[in-house]
Structures are given as structure tokens and as C-alpha cells.
Amino acid sequence: MEDPWQKAYDFAVAVARKAGAVCLENVSEIRKAGESEIRVMTKSSTVDLVTKTDERVEKIIIGSLKEEFGEGTHCFIGEESVAKGEPCILTDKPTWIIDPVDGTTNFVHGFPFVAVSIAFAVNKELEFGVVYSCLEDKMYKARRGKGAFCDDEPIEVSDVKDINQSIIISEHGTDRRPEKVTKIFSTMQKNLCIPVHGLRGSGTAATNMCLVATGAVEALFEIGIHCWDIAAGAVIVKEAGGILLDVDGGPFDLMSRRMISANNETIAKRIIKEIEIFPVVRDDAPIEKK
Q1: Cα–Cα nearest to 195, from 213, 168, 176, 214
Q2: Residue environment code for 112-151, b if the CB has 16+ CB neighbours within 10 A, otherwise e
Q3: 8-23 core/surface letters (b: 16 or more CB in 10 A; e: else)
Q4: Is 36 a residue whose pLDDT tops 90?
Q5: What is the C-alpha separation between 107 and 83, in angstroms, rounded?
Q6: What's the rounded Cα separation, in Å, for the pair 11 and 16?
Q7: Which of 36, 37, 176, 271 is the most buried (most CB within 10 A)?
């Protein structure tokens, strides 16, 4: 039987590398872009950054996909498109979920973790994910039911079961209201007092999830992320043998903006005990009319 999505998967890998090249001209676009590309703007808060490169890369990706598969045949959820008012609703139609420059703040500051993240869903189920870590030149990819890979080598999550021997990833997010920052740091404090070996963060959710998938860390949790940050990584983690849950221990919901991914249920549920949950607006929530 012909595989219906292999062509799309292979094309996603190619277009992710093409998009990553925009951030890697010669040694690194990041180090060259101060004059022409890094015109920093903000979105939802003063620390939620976007640059001309984010917008240009998203246009490259979506334009390439439309040219390959035909205008109007697929749907798109892109970070910059949504920021400009496009809907963020996952339907049964073939849908691409795109983060053109995951780690924009890293990009702006020259911190060396920036990723292109592309996921593909059909019937609301994620079929594959591709994460290209540009400066590392590492291509992570996975298809549902067919395993996860980094540069074509199979990857697996860590086999650590003792929380005391784990490294955990979490990020601070862009909502810096004191009541939310207090909960974030209280959660971090509780995890450090378990104690875990350490808390880390690369500044890009897609890369963080790939670190879980490769076994470099045991878990990642965050409240306030978006579907485009984690869609591709969700496939990669699951195919590497990991699990995905809501931060309250319930089922993973891509649109909920809250997630824990871990190497196993034992680690995940121990961390969940320490997470102080705060409310966030879902990605697919109706847009309030002004």
C-alpha cells in the first residue's frame, strides 16, 4: 500500500533545512544579521520578540509547501500568521504547524540554540514532526509509528527512573506578571529541593523536546507555550519512547498551552506533584472582538 504522507515528510525535512539556511548564511546569519535582519519587534509582551527573519522564514516555508502540494489543499498554523490574526484551529484537514524561528530571543542575542519546527497533522492527529537545530546542524525527525531520528540515527529517551538522578528542563515564558513568575519560580524551587540533578533550558521548546527524545534530559514542563512550539517535538518525543501529559496529569492537549514531556510516567508524575498551575488562554480559544 502506498504511504500517503512519505512525500510530505521528506519535503518537510528538505524545507526545514532550506529555512534553516536563512539563519545560517556563511558562518551564521545570526552574527551577520545585526544590520539587516534583527529589527526587533514585540507581540504579546515586551519580551515576546519577533524579527524580520521570523516573518521571512515563515513565508519561505508556507510558500514552498503551497507550491509543492497545491494552493488550498492544506491548512497552515504559523506562529507569525497567527500573530497577525489568522485562526489557530486544528481541523481534520491536512494541517502544517510551523514555528519558523523557535528561539527568537536566542536569535536576537546570538545565544546558540535556534530551531525550525515543522509538524503535520491529519484528522487532528500529529503524523510527523521535523526540528532542525540550525546552529548545531542537527536534523531531528519522526513519523508516527516509525521511530525518531537525529541525522538519520535512531534516538531513544533516557532509561532513568529515579527523579534524584534526573535533569529537568523548564523555561520562564514571556508572561512576566508577578503572580505568574512567582508560581514558575516556586515550581522550580520545589523541583530543586527534591533534589534533581539540575534544571536547564535552551530557550527553544523544540530543541528542549529533542533533548528529552535523545536522553540528554529526563523531562520538560512548561505552561504558556504554543502549539507551534511543541507540535513537531511532541511526535519526536513519543516516537523516541517518551510520554506527553498535561501538567495536571491528564491527557496531552496540543492546544492547551501546557505540557509535560518525559522519558517515563514515573518521572512525569513525580514532577507533576510540584507544578504550581496557573491559567492560560488556549491557542484555539475564540478571538475576542474589540
Answers
A1: 168
A2: bbbbbbbbbbbeeebbbbbbbbbbeeebbbbbbeeebbbe
A3: bbebbbebbbebbebb
A4: no
A5: 19
A6: 8
A7: 271
